[in-house]
Amino acid sequence: MKFPQPVSLKEIATLIHAEVIGNTASQAAGINEIHKVEEGDLCFVDHPKYYDASLNSAATHIIINTKDVVIPAGKNLLVTEEPFEAYLKIVNHFRPFNPTKELQSKNAVIGEGTVIMPNVFIGKDVKIGNNCIIHPNVILMDYTEIGDNVIIQSGTVIGSDAFYYNTKKNRGIWYKKMQSCGCVIIEDNVEIGANCTIDRGVTASTRIGKGTKMDNLVHIGHDTNVGSNCLFAAQVGIAGACIIEDGVVLWGQVGVSKTLTIGENAVVFAQSGVPSSLDGNKIYFGSPAIDAQSKRKELVWIKRIPEIWEKLKHLADKK
Predict the structure, then answer these.
(1) Inter-axis angle of helices 305-318 and 292-303, nearest 10
(2) C-alpha angle with apex 201: 233 to 94, nearest 5 degrees?
(3) Which among 128, 134, 135 has a CA at the least distance from the CA of 109?
(4) Where are the domains of the chain?
(5) 212 and 190 in contact (C-beta within 8 Å)?
(6) I want to staple 222 with a disulfide (CB 3.0 to 4.6 A). Which of 12, 115, 199, 251 is the partner?
(7) Using CA atoms, how far apart are residues 285 and 256, in angstroms rounded to an integer?
(8) What is the pLDDT of residues 114-164, one digit of tens each?
(9) Are 87 and 44 in contact (CB under 8 A)?
(10) Dihedral over Cα of 26, 35, 181, 122: its sign
(11) What was the pLDDT predicted at 235?
């Protein structure tokens, strides 16, 4: 998430009750997760396991719960007891939850030739391109961006919060919601079926590439980047922070685990499970998904197990 304008570290420190170590005159451009940060951004870390990764990330400013670290040149620390709580305070300050009673926000931008059917909810700062068709009962949450010639079928929700929680067992609430402040970007010529859900990024963007087509009941998790001209059949589920490269085909009920990559032009047959990254330009099947031809051979041999067993018993009896 980028701030509306750069904010001084002194102001951030006052907001989250932190001590600044470094250049107090420096300014922060935004706040992002470690894998999404850019120069000028804030990130937060509250576990020693991730100290080095955060300090050596692209982030210029690190919210942290210790002073006992080596600070790389050009970095600034904001030291506070609970960095996660500091993250929540920053997000809620710059992107507070503002309930609305309007079906369509007054500051939404809707392009020429676009058709908005009844009962479509359009949130704050939504942008819709030209010649789109948004069918009844679609929900476009705040900051969603839609390109030209996009079709979205009834009941789809775009920009819902990420399924993302900070887990600590030493407090009453084990799973504390990490407030989503990102968005969804849908590029040109995308078609999305009925009752699909696409979660916004936690701090950055979930992106659907141009020309991609989705059947009904597809779910795309937070911060996932779907390439161009992909095809997803009904009940495909993709977890958070995945990279689905151009031309990937996922047939019905394929489940894709988090933070992995499926290479370009890969095809995954129906009801397969994808727990780890897959190379492109191959066909996969099974759970865990493997080369489809190898899986077929495996299934043939499994069917032959009773026959082989009987032959072995027969040979044993002869002895």
Answers:
(1) 40
(2) 155
(3) 128
(4) 2-94, 109-293
(5) yes
(6) 199
(7) 12
(8) 999 999 999 999 999 999 999 999 999 999 999 999 999 999 999 999 999
(9) yes
(10) positive
(11) 98
Q: How far apart are CA 255 and CA 147, in angstroms?
A: 27
| Catalytic pick among 61, 135, 219, 222 | 222
The secondary element (H helix, E strand) that includes residue 296 is helix 292-303
- The yes-or-no verdict on residue 7 having pLDDT over 80 is yes
C-alpha–C-alpha distance, residues 307 and 100, integer Å: 67
Task: Report the C-alpha gap between 11 and 25 in whole angstroms.
Answer: 10
Measured distance CA(146)–CA(207) in Å, rounded: 10
CATH 3.90.1150.10 for the 109-293 domain, yes or no = no
In a 3-state reduction of DSSP, which class is residue 14? helix
Which of 296, 288, 291 lies closest to 267 in space, CA to CA? Answer: 291
Of 280, 238, 232, nearest to 257 by C-alpha is 238
**Do 109-293 and 2-94 fall under one CATH topology?**
no
Quick one: pLDDT at residue 19? 96
User: Can you tell me the distance from the alpha carbon of 127 to that of 144, in angstroms, rounded to the nearest whole number?
Assistant: 6
17 is catalytic: no
Residue that wins the pLDDT comparison between 35 and 20: 20
Helix H segments across the chain?
9-16, 51-55, 83-94, 292-303, 305-318
User: CA-to-CA distance for 212 and 189, rounded, in angstroms?
Assistant: 7
User: Is the Cβ–Cβ distance between 32 and 47 less than 8 Å?
Assistant: no
Rounded Cα distance, 265 and 22, in Å: 47
Length of the chain: 319
Contact between 219 and 237 (Cβ < 8 Å): yes
pLDDT at 319: 67
Q: Of 275, 243, 249, 276, whose CA–CA distance to 261 is shortest? A: 243
Residues 6+ apart with CB under 8 A from 37: 43, 57, 58, 59
